[in-house]
Amino acid sequence: MPPFIAPPGSLSPISPEKNSVKMAFKKPCLDCGKLSYESRCELHRRRVEQLRDIKRAEKKKAYYNTDYRKRAKLVRDTAIVCHICGDGARLNDPWQADHLEPGNPLSPLAAAHRSCNAARGNKPLGN
Ligand SMILES: [Zn+2]
Ligand SMILES: [Zn+2]
Fold it and tell me: The CATH number of the domain where 70 resides is what?
Protein backbone atom coordinates (compact mmCIF):
# COMPACT_ATOMS: atom_id res chain seq x y z
CA MET A 1 0.00 0.00 0.00
CA PRO A 2 1.71 3.26 -1.09
CA PRO A 3 1.79 6.06 1.51
CA PHE A 4 -0.78 8.75 0.99
CA ILE A 5 0.85 11.76 -0.62
CA ALA A 6 -1.07 14.95 -0.25
CA PRO A 7 -1.17 17.00 -3.42
CA PRO A 8 0.70 20.30 -3.13
CA GLY A 9 -1.35 23.09 -1.57
CA SER A 10 -3.75 20.87 0.31
CA LEU A 11 -1.67 20.56 3.50
CA SER A 12 -2.84 23.80 5.04
CA PRO A 13 -6.21 23.30 6.78
CA ILE A 14 -7.36 26.67 5.53
CA SER A 15 -7.12 27.06 1.83
CA PRO A 16 -6.17 30.47 0.41
CA GLU A 17 -9.65 30.71 -1.06
CA LYS A 18 -11.27 30.36 2.35
CA ASN A 19 -8.86 32.93 3.78
CA SER A 20 -9.91 35.54 1.29
CA VAL A 21 -13.64 35.08 1.73
CA LYS A 22 -13.86 38.20 3.88
CA MET A 23 -12.22 40.29 1.19
CA ALA A 24 -14.67 41.81 -1.24
CA PHE A 25 -14.43 40.75 -4.83
CA LYS A 26 -13.75 43.33 -7.43
CA LYS A 27 -16.81 44.25 -9.43
CA PRO A 28 -17.03 46.03 -12.74
CA CYS A 29 -17.98 49.71 -12.53
CA LEU A 30 -21.64 50.24 -13.46
CA ASP A 31 -20.64 53.02 -15.79
CA CYS A 32 -17.35 52.01 -17.43
CA GLY A 33 -16.75 48.38 -16.40
CA LYS A 34 -13.44 49.10 -14.65
CA LEU A 35 -12.90 46.67 -11.76
CA SER A 36 -13.09 48.08 -8.24
CA TYR A 37 -14.29 47.01 -4.79
CA GLU A 38 -17.32 49.30 -5.03
CA SER A 39 -20.18 49.25 -7.47
CA ARG A 40 -18.43 52.02 -9.40
CA CYS A 41 -14.81 52.96 -10.04
CA GLU A 42 -13.46 55.91 -8.07
CA LEU A 43 -14.02 58.36 -10.92
CA HIS A 44 -17.66 57.42 -11.44
CA ARG A 45 -18.32 57.15 -7.72
CA ARG A 46 -17.24 60.77 -7.44
CA ARG A 47 -19.49 61.70 -10.35
CA VAL A 48 -22.48 60.05 -8.67
CA GLU A 49 -21.73 62.01 -5.50
CA GLN A 50 -21.54 65.23 -7.49
CA LEU A 51 -24.89 64.50 -9.10
CA ARG A 52 -26.35 63.89 -5.64
CA ASP A 53 -25.01 67.27 -4.49
CA ILE A 54 -26.51 68.99 -7.52
CA LYS A 55 -29.90 67.40 -6.82
CA ARG A 56 -29.69 68.53 -3.21
CA ALA A 57 -28.88 72.09 -4.31
CA GLU A 58 -31.81 72.05 -6.72
CA LYS A 59 -34.16 71.01 -3.94
CA LYS A 60 -32.90 73.88 -1.82
CA LYS A 61 -33.39 76.27 -4.70
CA ALA A 62 -36.94 75.05 -5.26
CA TYR A 63 -37.66 75.60 -1.61
CA TYR A 64 -36.36 79.16 -1.78
CA ASN A 65 -38.44 79.83 -4.86
CA THR A 66 -41.80 78.94 -3.37
CA ASP A 67 -42.45 78.69 0.34
CA TYR A 68 -39.48 80.81 1.34
CA ARG A 69 -40.55 83.75 -0.82
CA LYS A 70 -44.03 83.68 0.66
CA ARG A 71 -42.69 83.55 4.20
CA ALA A 72 -40.18 86.31 3.54
CA LYS A 73 -42.85 88.55 2.04
CA LEU A 74 -45.15 87.97 5.00
CA VAL A 75 -42.34 88.83 7.43
CA ARG A 76 -41.58 92.06 5.56
CA ASP A 77 -45.24 93.00 5.22
CA THR A 78 -45.97 92.53 8.91
CA ALA A 79 -42.69 93.93 10.28
CA ILE A 80 -43.01 96.22 13.28
CA VAL A 81 -39.57 96.19 14.89
CA CYS A 82 -36.15 95.10 13.75
CA HIS A 83 -35.09 91.95 15.55
CA ILE A 84 -31.46 93.11 15.51
CA CYS A 85 -31.60 96.72 16.72
CA GLY A 86 -35.15 96.83 18.10
CA ASP A 87 -36.07 100.01 16.18
CA GLY A 88 -39.19 100.54 14.13
CA ALA A 89 -39.44 101.26 10.43
CA ARG A 90 -36.83 103.60 8.99
CA LEU A 91 -36.85 105.68 5.87
CA ASN A 92 -34.53 104.35 3.13
CA ASP A 93 -33.83 101.22 5.17
CA PRO A 94 -36.37 98.67 3.98
CA TRP A 95 -37.30 95.55 5.89
CA GLN A 96 -35.63 92.30 5.06
CA ALA A 97 -36.52 88.81 6.17
CA ASP A 98 -33.52 87.61 8.12
CA HIS A 99 -32.73 84.00 8.97
CA LEU A 100 -32.49 83.51 12.70
CA GLU A 101 -30.13 80.62 11.94
CA PRO A 102 -27.84 81.83 9.17
CA GLY A 103 -27.34 79.38 6.36
CA ASN A 104 -30.33 77.25 7.30
CA PRO A 105 -33.11 77.61 4.72
CA LEU A 106 -35.63 76.14 7.16
CA SER A 107 -34.72 78.62 9.88
CA PRO A 108 -37.44 80.92 11.20
CA LEU A 109 -37.41 84.37 9.64
CA ALA A 110 -37.55 87.70 11.41
CA ALA A 111 -37.75 91.23 10.12
CA ALA A 112 -34.58 93.30 10.14
CA HIS A 113 -33.50 96.60 8.63
CA ARG A 114 -31.50 96.07 5.50
CA SER A 115 -28.54 97.89 7.08
CA CYS A 116 -28.77 95.78 10.27
CA ASN A 117 -29.00 92.58 8.26
CA ALA A 118 -26.03 93.57 6.14
CA ALA A 119 -23.98 94.50 9.19
CA ARG A 120 -24.80 91.21 10.83
CA GLY A 121 -23.86 89.21 7.74
CA ASN A 122 -23.84 85.49 8.39
CA LYS A 123 -22.88 85.74 12.03
CA PRO A 124 -25.17 83.93 14.46
CA LEU A 125 -27.25 86.03 16.84
CA GLY A 126 -25.45 87.54 19.81
CA ASN A 127 -22.11 87.95 18.05
ZN1 LIG B 1 -16.21 53.81 -13.97
ZN1 LIG C 1 -32.38 97.32 12.76
Answer: 3.30.40
Please answer whether residues 84 and 112 qualify as being in contact, where contact means their C-beta atoms are separated by less than 8 angstroms: yes
Dihedral angle at the C-alpha atoms of 62, 68, 70, 75, nearest 10 degrees?
Answer: -170
What is the per-residue pLDDT across 24-80, written as a single tens digit (0 to 9) for each?
789 999 999 999 999 999 999 999 999 999 999 988 887 777 788 899 999 999 999
**Shared-domain flag, residues 37 and 54:** yes
* CA 58 to ligand 1 centroid distance, Å: 25
Which ligand lies nearest the alpha carbon of 80? 2
28 CA → ligand 1 middle, Å? 8
User: 31 CA to middle of ligand 1, Å?
Assistant: 5
User: Does 102 lie in the same domain as 78?
Assistant: yes
